[in-house]
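Tutorial, part two.
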Amino acid sequence: MTREDASQSSWLSAIGLRLSEWFERWFPDAFSLACIAVIVVFVATLLIGSSPLQSAQWFGAGFWDLVAFTMQMALIILTGYAVATSAPVFAIIRRLADIPKTGRSAAAFVGLFSMLSSLLSWSFSLIFSALLAKEVTHRVRGADYRAVGAAAYLGIGSIWALGLSSSAALIMAAPASLPASILKISGMIPLSQTLGLWQSVVIALILGVISYAICYFSAPPPAEARGMADMGVEYQATAIAIGKPEKPGEWLEYSPLLTIFIGACGLAYLAREVADKGPSVLLDLNHFVFAFLIGGLLLHWRPRSFAKAISAGVPSVAGVLIQYPLYAGIVRMMTESGLAKKLAELFIDISTQHSFPFLVGVYSAFLGLFIPSAGGKWLIEAPYMLAAANSLHVHLGWVVQTYNATEALANLIHPFWMLPLLGILGLKARDIVGYSMLQFIVHVPVVLFLVWILNYTLTYLPPVLP
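Running the prediction step on this input gives:
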């Protein structure tokens, strides 16, 4: 080992390498994990009294429940890829990629970017962090592609739900989005009582600092680092280049006329939506995808360039298209059989006013392994969680934030949200989950302790019911 390697070696990097090597050897493929999860939930529904035929029926019916969401995720990847590969944005990514100079700073820099951007939008963070990770690893000698890839995934697994794209907090703050079953229990909970709580900010800051430190100190020294080529990934310049039209019929493909017209219509629509509903409307997935679609068109300027970028991004969505329907079937089995409700009631029955956030956190993190959808899962859990919080006199906004902070924990080791990032990186879940597991091992006790201890600083506020 060289002097440089010795100076960068640490007990944390040794643990990171051992975890990475173990998971690379033993961790199943993401699709196999999805199939295993189907079997586990299927058996669990049988144990609580469902018939095999009924559970199979729920699985088959639920298979289609996430079709719209699957399409949204596929379009987020494709339009985000198109935006990132446009000449102006790709130039920014390359400038950012030139900032870190060592393997450790590469992982830490990508992790910091991933976390900060996730506070604005988890979908933006997921796609752009992956593209940044590729460029950083390509440029920085001694950067480990596994560690940097795991750092790119950190936003979705740490603090994103404490930011502006928090599904649960946004749902509770919008009466129009609240089902009547929840509204009559808690009423509307404003963002000032969820995202705006100083206790929520404290959790985000502490997690951010800890995650950054783990990224930095767990990155392996140069001698043990594995770059893109070592992982079997061939680097290709992401920027899209086009030539000139060779036939008269190709003229429109290279002309900006179509782009200008469609872009103008799209911008007019988005401006009207923002004027009517406020800037937060752009955080809605449909509006977000549409904004990236229009942005990608205008940034590429010519239809030919945009279409080529979309085609280049298509391989990245393969895992999303085939695996998300399996998780939709899992969600239907858990909800229709009553398994999710029985698990929640078990945790609630043994709770007190002060232990409630801790036990809710344990439950939310566990259930997140089987229902990896923050907004959808909140709608399932909210009625009995909020009703129990009222009975135990627990701050309702803190219940929402406890859910946000702990639900994200499962993302660190769950392939569901890894799929878009893995598609762009050209890696498998087993390649990065070792470093994600290291974060998970540290995050779980820290988050559960924080949601428990900070609950003592809050006072119960009776809900204002409609």
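Confidence is low (pLDDT under 50) at residues 1-7. In part three we will examine how such features are distributed along the chain.
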